[in-house]
Amino acid sequence: MGVELIGLHWVYVLFVALIVGFMIARKDTTIVCIAGVFVLALMATGSLSHSVIGVFSSFIYAIKELLGTILVISIIVGMSQVLTKTGINETMITPVARLIRTPALAFWVTGIAMMIISWFFWPSPAVALIGAVLLPVAVRVGLPAIGVAMAMNLFGHGIALSGDYIIQGAPKLTADAAGIPVGDVMSASVPLVIVMGVVTTVTAFLMLRKDLKSGKLAADKPPKGSTVLNDDLPFRIPARHSSLTRGAKRLLAAVILLLFALDVAAMFVLKLQGGDATALIGGTALFILLLVSLLAHRAKGLEKTTGYLVEGFQFGFRVFGPVIPIAAFFYLGDAALTDIFGKVLPQGSTGIVNDLGVALAHSVPLNKAVSAVTLTAVGAITGLDGSGFSGISLAGSIAHLFAAAIGSGIATLTALGQVAAIWVGGGTLIPWALIPAAAICGVDPFDLARRNLKPVLIGLVVTTIVAMFLL
């Protein structure tokens, strides 16, 4: 029958329910998570002072677990800043603009370019680059700005971010919460990301084309001036300060692409995953940042390098600041409780979540279909805060719980929760998460969210059904 459940187990369940409730109500969960850690610590230690210490220790534990992810994203954003300000980013993407000849090509080329860049640079920095270079070209051939924004959202914040195969920030969070290797989550997510991506983007494109043909959606007027928007952009691209010649920019663009291609090759040849793969990308990005900064700014290169790194770290901690308290709480469901407070669970326990999963298996008739639907719902709920990342630890934790109950499928359930959370909250449905793409395209974020709603919901339904067969 498994380990006997004690007060710690039930308090953990209570706070999970509270966290989910706050997310549904679109309220911040930080205070609830801190309160949960404190109460668990108080029950585990029986000491007020040790409980206060435990709250801080849980944050340290979470930061240690997340530090590699925070660091690599910060460095990549810093690198993206220097590439944007020197014009190298534009040099890298401009050849793609030549492929755009029709509205259909504009949608797919913009989307695929956004997806590829987002794999390496993350979607937030990629939005400014794609918007600046491809938006005016797409509008000129007849694709409305709302269509460009949809393509950037669905391919970047949807497909690229939900898989996150290069930087591996998302799968690390969910894998840690589920207590399985990062590689397992990534492998399990491949068919789900493909199904979700294909269904969503094809549905969005067909709906867009239908509205264009019926006249319900009119093409925008082409922007004035050159192929790169400047003052027409509601979202300002950083001013360029570079002494690099056009030839130097082209050479550096080619070198950067080559270096990242070599990184990807090394991942396959050397079988690098998780922290090792993240470190390889992060180290490469750091050297690119140093090289470009020194070449572009010359005498001021040393100071500028530090400035770019600071900008990157500001972005990294702004994104992951809300994640740390949530992760601190959910890590207590597995190994963190014992690591921080010692042996406080009953003999034979393998962690709060595992114990709850075994108990659930003996009391509730769970099956694969119910588990898949529940994980999609949990993922979608955690995405309602507009982050996408803040709640995927909960998805991983519940996947662990349900897999223990049905006896299999932990990697698939974890990946399903991750895909649902990031598609809803990462920047495709929640209006305040859509602001960067909406602003750079000059469209209303609420209109963009409404346009994305039906394709994303259809994609989630189909992906959930596919997941049932994969469990």
From TrEMBL:
The keyword Transit peptide does not apply. The chain crosses the membrane at residues 6-24, 31-53, 59-83, 104-121, 127-143, 150-168, 188-208, 251-271, 277-296, 308-332, 369-389, 429-446, 453-470. Keywords: Membrane, Transmembrane, Transmembrane helix. The keyword Heme does not apply. This is Membrane protein. The lineage of its organism: Bacteria, Bacillati, Bacillota, Bacilli, Bacillales.
